[in-house]
């Protein structure tokens, strides 16, 4: 295949995109861009692969802001697609439900199905679908592919996937799915690239960011993960609570007279680091604060991360490799050390100098568990999955072939 592919990663308050040149099985980054502060003070920054900034502008919030954002993306990439036409767009989609284990070429029926999953991903699914609908309207001729964050976990251990609820509800699809699958796909592929021996190890990957989760994997396959039906469970996050006692929810509804909508708002938007600290959901802000509640929030984040990690270890009956990734995992030596210092019982021994330098391997040679830092790259996974799906569709005559 030859041409360019656009990878879109739409979040609740940001929109990241990358343009890749595709030549056969080789993918070269052309541009990277990001809209930040979409709901408050939107700003677009775009850089070429070499780091040269080609766009840095503020946008006005208005009724047609999303359309404006997409038009600006097309405007920015136009000179770079003149000789290598844009062949497809890949969208990160949070939830594929029980239906999709692989990326899929989008059509009206699939988009309608994905809308039914919004209650299981109220932070991200609406944003994912909004960009899909706009792109399909603006460029109906362009093949578009949905790449699912749930797909990586579709074959986790059946015991890990089930909830202990009546069979009638399980039959309706209420089960644990897991998320951050594009990130875990990248990490699994990266481990395989490093060493076939390494990918066979019992590994826990800690995707720590504003949204956080962990995945137990072996042989590049997911065995268990910390999130469940929704991306609300598992680790404590920036504004999300992570796992709480279901009885707490019932008690709050009854004793505090809170509606389901108010409970959802509290657990998704007002809990986690923000709720515990009363200051911010941004770990960087809390690290710089001298407020005692900031320290308590950080300590609880680490405590609960270690507790969730122990569940992953129990599922695999051991751990031989630990990988830190995503915003916090890649960039916070302090948090990595706080977590690893609590894992001595597993044989984890951190090399402080390597950790402070964010080296690829940050464990001591004598550590029984090898600890790595691997920057994730969801967008390259989006691009590769999109090119594969569109290539297969072209061979089947469903879409025009790549040039």
Automatic annotation (TrEMBL):
Ordered alphabetically, the record's keywords are: ATP-binding, Cytoplasm, Kinase, Magnesium, Metal-binding, Nucleotide-binding, Transferase
Q: What is its EC number?
A: 2.7.2.1
The entry's free-text remark on the cofactor is: Mg(2+). Can also accept Mn(2+).
GO molecular function annotation? acetate kinase activity; ATP binding; magnesium ion binding
Cofactors needed by this protein, per the record, are: Mg(2+); Mn(2+)
Residues recorded as binding ATP, renumbered to this chain, are 16, 207-211, 282-284, 327-331
Output the Gene Ontology cellular-component terms.
Answer: cytosol
Described by its record, this protein's role is as follows: Catalyzes the formation of acetyl phosphate from acetate and ATP. Can also catalyze the reverse reaction.
Query: What family is this?
Result: Belongs to the acetokinase family.
Protein name (Swiss-Prot/TrEMBL): Acetate kinase
């Amino acid at each position: 295949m030859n041409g360019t592919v656009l990878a879109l990663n739409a979040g609740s308050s940001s929109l990241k995109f990358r343009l890749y040149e595709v030549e056969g099985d080789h993918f070269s980054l052309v541009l990277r861009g990001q809209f930040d502060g979409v709901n408050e003070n939107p700003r677009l920054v775009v850089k070429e692969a070499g780091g040269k900034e080609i766009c840095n502008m503020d946008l006005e919030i208005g009724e047609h802001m999303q359309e404006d954002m997409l038009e600006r993306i097309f405007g920015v990439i136009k000179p770079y697609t003149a000789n290598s036409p844009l062949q497809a767009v890949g969208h990160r989609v949070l939830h594929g439900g029980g239906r999709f284990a692989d990326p899929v070429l989008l059509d009206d029926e699939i988009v309608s199905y994905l809308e039914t999953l919004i209650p299981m991903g109220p932070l991200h699914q609406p944003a994912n679908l909004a960009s899909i609908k706009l792109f399909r309207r603006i460029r109906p001729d362009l093949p578009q592919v949905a790449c699912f964050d749930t797909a990586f976990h579709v074959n986790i251990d059946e015991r890990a996937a089930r909830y202990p609820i009546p069979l009638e509800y399980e039959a309706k699809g209420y089960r644990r799915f897991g998320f951050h699958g594009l990130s875990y796909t990248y990490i699994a592929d990266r481990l395989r690239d490093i060493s076939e021996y390494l990918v066979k190890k019992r590994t826990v990957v800690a995707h720590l960011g504003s949204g956080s989760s962990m995945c137990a994997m072996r042989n590049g396959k997911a065995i268990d993960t910390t999130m469940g039906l929704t991306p609300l469970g598992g680790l404590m996050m920036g504004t999300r609570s992570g796992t709480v006692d279901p009885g707490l929810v019932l008690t709050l509804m009854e004793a505090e007279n809170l509606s389901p909508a108010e409970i959802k708002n509290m657990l998704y938007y007002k809990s986690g680091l923000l709720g515990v600290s009363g200051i911010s959901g941004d770990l960087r802000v809390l690290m710089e604060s001298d407020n005692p509640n900031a320290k308590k929030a950080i300590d609880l984040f680490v405590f609960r991360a270690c507790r969730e990690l122990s569940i992953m270890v129990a599922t695999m009956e051991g751990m031989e490799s630990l990988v830190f990734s995503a915003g916090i995992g890649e960039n916070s030596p302090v948090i990595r050390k706080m977590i690893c210092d609590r894992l001595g019982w597993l044989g984890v021994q951190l090399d402080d100098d390597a950790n402070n330098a964010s080296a690829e391997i940050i464990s001591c040679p004598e550590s029984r568990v090898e600890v790595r830092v691997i920057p994730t790259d969801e967008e390259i996974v989006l691009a590769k999955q999109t090119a594969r799906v569109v290539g297969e569709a072209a061979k089947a005559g469903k879409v025009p072939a790549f040039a």
